[in-house]
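seq:
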Amino acid sequence: MKESILDVLLYLFEHYFSDDADLVRDRDSLQNGLLEAGFSPAEIHKAFEWLDALAEQRPAVASARFDGPVRLYTAPEYAKLDVEGVGFLMFLEQSGVLNAEQRELAVDRAMALDQDDIDLDDLKWVVLMVLFNQPGAEAAYAWMENLMFGDEPAPTH
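struct:
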């Protein structure tokens, strides 16, 4: 099986972080759990580097500013995120789910994945993990979580 950093991150998020966020686990026990799940040591190492970089960029308090300048994406960012992903990030920012700093962190973490392109579902996971790591972003995290896992509203006729 060819797993990616995102596969390891999703496994961690689904099995450890989202189930009991208050439960403290040390890195060794997490690594052992990932090895038992069948992930390679190299991918586990890359995933922990990704998480370390996310933690290093974590602000003390989330900024509430949503009226920042328009973001221009570079050619490599556009190639990896595509128009749909960039549009989704713009939607989240304009809706007040992401502020400029969180958007930049989401772009940075998406670009750090070992994939040539990031589809919309993968980008949603990256945004969810970024919001999970942000102090004061509980409402935005809940909104994203509902977007991803909530029941679709019934169509009205």
